[in-house]
């Protein structure tokens, strides 16, 4: 008789081990990718300098630098989304002997961080700029804005025309995207779970990819620039502000541009892959008398990529003398009181 085969017992279930391994791998990736906020004091020590001041502006502790000639034309510099005032360092070096240069980290950016107001829209930032100007005792001044900061600059000029003597727009936001579709990062941020978790992932890899799109010259994407950009995003409050802005900012209405009546210079990098150079021509067409300077070999951040050439366009456009305050409206001469007047009759009677 052939030997009897032993009855096979139940096979061990493998799926619990596979699930456990997958969960462990996912937890490992999450721990590797997780990047908490960095201490405020550490980042201030690392990225502030001798010109940095922290002043209260509309409830925020704003990081501000006031450099150059104190008695010259004030030029207020407004950076773009996820940027910082360091983006203007090249212009400061080129222009400090001619102008008073005021740069600021907008709320939710750089070393300013959170804003108790909790709004991070273009309109809210225009309000912030007004309070900053009042705090610094600026009456009339020139304003330059890059990308999102350009939208803040022209919104400020459109709503406070008496404050702006000249306007400079650098690769500015202002017109809807073709097709009206939001960028992928904005769409992801507007998904509640994905956005809430995603802001805590390490930003460096995304930063590097973004900077390679921003600059026409990849040599600009240095490890130091990637580190600074990524670390400033981890300043307390900045990533939460970015998420709020992505979820609440409505498409811009460019119609006020056609009502602007202020000398305007538009600077654009022809190799901008984020905001097409065609938008530069649209700004020139909509803003009365605007001048357009296009730089063929530069990308979305031309003031960083070639500060010397772009600053030269500024000096050609912007006078060094501070603007005169606008003349107040002349008071109307009061009409004499009716009590002192001799009122003639409506109809003069004829003599008999």
Short description:
This protein is an alpha/beta fold and 352 residues long. It contains 13 helices and eight strands. The termini are far apart.
The CATH architecture can be named as 3-Layer(aba) Sandwich
**What's the order of the H and E elements?**
HHEEEHEHEHEHHHHHEHEHH
Count of helical segments?
13
What count of structural domains? 1
What is the CATH third-level topology name?
Answer: Rossmann fold
Strand elements, count: 8
Computed over alpha carbons, the radius of gyration is: 29 Å
Summed over residues and divided by their number, the pLDDT gives a mean of 85
Summarize the main sheet: 8 strands, mixed
Structural class designation: alpha/beta
Strand fraction equals: 5-15%
- Helical percent range? 25-40%
CATH homologous superfamily heading: Alpha/Beta hydrolase fold, catalytic domain
User: What best-fitting shape do the alpha-carbon axes yield?
Assistant: globular
- Weakly predicted, low-confidence segments: 21-32, 334-352
Spatial order of the strands forming the largest sheet: 1-2-4-3-5-6-7-8
Distance between the termini: 161 Å
């Amino acid at each position: 008789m052939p030997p009897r085969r032993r009855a096979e017992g139940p096979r061990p279930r493998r799926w619990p081990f596979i699930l456990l391994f997958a969960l462990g791998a996912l937890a490992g990736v999450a721990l590797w990718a997780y990047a908490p906020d960095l201490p405020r004091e550490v980042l201030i020590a690392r990225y502030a300098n001798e010109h940095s001041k922290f002043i209260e502006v509309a409830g925020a502790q704003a990081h501000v630098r006031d450099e150059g000639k104190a008695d010259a034309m004030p030029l207020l510099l407004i950076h773009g989304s996820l940027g910082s005032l360091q983006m203007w360092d090249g212009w400061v070096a080129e222009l400090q002997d001619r102008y008073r240069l005021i740069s600021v980290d907008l709320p939710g950016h750089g070393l300013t961080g959170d804003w108790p107001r909790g709004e991070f829209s273009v309109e809210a930032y225009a309000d912030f700029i007004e309070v900053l100007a009042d705090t610094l005792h600026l009456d009339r001044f020139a304003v330059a804005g890059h990308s999102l900061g350009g939208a803040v600059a022209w919104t400020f000029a459109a709503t406070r025309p008496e404050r702006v003597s000249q306007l400079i727009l650098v690769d500015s936001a202002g017109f809807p995207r073709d097709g009206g579709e939001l960028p992928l990062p904005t769409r992801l941020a507007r998904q509640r779970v994905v956005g809430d978790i995603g802001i805590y992932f390490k930003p460096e890899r995304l930063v590097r990819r973004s900077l390679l799109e921003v600059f026409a010259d990849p040599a600009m994407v240095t490890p130091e620039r990637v580190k600074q950009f990524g670390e400033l995003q981890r300043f307390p409050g900045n990533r939460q502000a970015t998420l709020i802005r992505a979820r609440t900012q409505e498409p811009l209405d460019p119609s006020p541009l056609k009502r602007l009546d202020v000398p305007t210079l538009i600077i654009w990098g022809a190799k901008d892959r984020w905001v097409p150079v065609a938008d530069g021509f649209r700004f020139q067409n909509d803003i009365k008398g605007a001048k357009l300077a296009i730089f063929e070999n530069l990308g979305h951040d031309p003031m960083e990529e070639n500060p010397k050439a772009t600053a030269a366009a500024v000096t050609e456009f912007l006078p060094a003398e501070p603007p005169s305050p606008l003349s107040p409206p002349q008071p109307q001469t009061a009409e004499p009181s009716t009590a002192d007047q001799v009122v003639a009759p409506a109809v003069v009677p004829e003599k008999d």
